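job 3f2a | input accepted
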Amino acid sequence: MATIKPFKGLRPPKSIVQELSCLPYDVMSSQEAARMASDKSASLLHVTRAEINFDHEVDPHSTEVYRQAAQVFDRFIHNGLLVQDEESCFYVYAQNMQGHTQYGIVGAAAYEDYLRGIIKKHELTRPDKEDDRMILTRYLRANIEPVFFSYRAVEEIDQIVEQVIRSKPDYDFEAEDKVRHTFWVIRNPEINMQIEQLFDQKVESTYVADGHHRTAAAARIGQEFKSANPQHRGDEPYNYFMAVHFPDNQLQILDYNRTIKDLNGLTPKEFVDSISENFEILSTSQTPIRPSARHMFSMYIDGLWYELKAKSHTYDDKDPIKSLDVTILSKFVLENMLDIKDLRTDTRIDFVGGIRGLDTLSARVDSGSMRVAFALFPVSMDQLIRIADTDQIMPPKTTWFEPKLRSGLVIHKLD
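job 3f2a | predicted structure (415 res):
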């Protein structure tokens, strides 16, 4: 069962929370981060993307950048921009985007649960990205940004959250991403104990929705700090890392679409003819067509949208991986027709999150930078959980979660 603990969060005063908080480090470039923080001296981006405090030529992974992040972090604490709660608490974090609201419980997850497979993953990680977050965590001695977790909804936990959100929130603001962020500190010890017990009794597994690299880095840091402590007991803060836990029935996964630079020597007509071998062409349109169900796709090429339906021989709905639409597209189009075999390294393909809209796909093709685009129906949380429960890995660039967690609402110190 899942182990989740309350913790003494490090938080900004209400008066500066909107300036200090920021989008996650991995959804922007260094240049974008610099622009976002240009008029915000208290932005947490000065810690999470500390390279913005240097000339453009600096290596973001250099020792001087990590040292600068630690210095800024310490200065924030010294100057009262971050203040630690006196008692261990859970927190409720609500996000509202375009009328959709989801409520997560912020708590400290046990890194041992990750090693034992209680915290389940669905993506592979890259060692260089793990190393980056691990080194930053080592310098800061804190989980500076939360990980995005999910769990199968538990009615009793939902009832506690409903009770908490009736009270006045500690933070409530709309950020530049047009998402409303609302945050409650649970100061009642009995409620905190109930939450901890319910996760221990009712939640068999938790699932990494977004933040696989931060999760893996947190587990490595926990092991490192344990090895360096001759008096290790097992209850030290470094045994845990910060995660926001959302019930699965509240989350929305957006489509994650593909654009390709060339047709591998085929003419547009030859390409469309080849597509029809494995997909039914249901309709065409000059306006965007959004896939309406699993195994439905839309394709944009030469100024025209095509509505496609995968033929039955292209998938196996009894198999968690072979039933995925990204698998169908990868095998029967990207590999067989376009000779794109490695989605992580092939420079002929690019990926577009559904938050950017279908017009972005057609615009890239119309600009000439891309030759064809494909829109996919989003995967479901049930599909994600099914794959994680069977210890399988989704193909790259399969899930796009929105809204993104705000960094800086609360921070978990490791000592």
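job 3f2a | The chain has two domains: 4-252, 256-377.
job 3f2a | closed
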